Amino acid sequence: MSPSNLIRVMVVDDHAIMRAGLVSMIDREPGMTVVAEAGNGIQAVEGFHRHKPDITLMDLRMPLMDGVEAIESIRKEFHKSRFIVLTTYDGDEDIYRALEVGAQAYLLKGMARSDLFAAIRAVHSGLRYIPSVVAKSITSRVRSDLTKRELDVLKLLAAGRSNKEIAASLKTTEGTVKSYVI
Questions:
Q1: Alpha carbon of 40 to those of 13, 37, 46, 95, 178: distances in Å?
Q2: pLDDT at 159 over 90
Q3: Considering Cα of 70, then 75, then 76, then 78, what sign does the dihedral take?
Q4: pTM above 0.90?
Q5: Which residues contact 32 (CB under 8 A, 6 or more apart)?
Q6: Is the dihedral of CA 82, 163, 91, 39 positive or negative?
Q7: Calpha distance 91→96 (Å, rounded)
Q8: Among residues 51, 106, 115, 50, which one has the least CA distance to residue 83?
Q9: pLDDT at 109 over 80
């Protein structure tokens, strides 16, 4: 794959070991490369301006400027920028705030590496990526820019329905449901 076809990622986390691990994993994944790293929100904003990554993996709680503030700051100028929040915090307020300012995905650091790569690819192709564990936390709170269909899928997922059951309920295909929630 030529360098111009790679998904260009910036990794933002205040823990150097976490950042190094993510960089190592992403750089070994076919079709992806890390173009920048940052240890706080201010560095993230500066790094985004300099490198203009396709996807930014953003931690939430960092010194100087948190992840939500950094996303908000970047999206003021770069409206189409794409963010995946990667954090240990699974509280509904954290999730809601991140999605409200423009994050397209919200992942917990304990997930499988395959889920991280799936989220990067999904968000790069213009989709949202909300794992079921996260969806359950925010179903009652969501009033953001999710479409009606995304909300319908989210509610059914939070109720414990399988992709097949959601597809039948919404009269669509299982593949379409998977494109909403992978």
A1: 7, 9, 10, 19, 33
A2: no
A3: positive
A4: no
A5: 6, 7, 9, 26, 117, 120
A6: negative
A7: 9
A8: 106
A9: yes
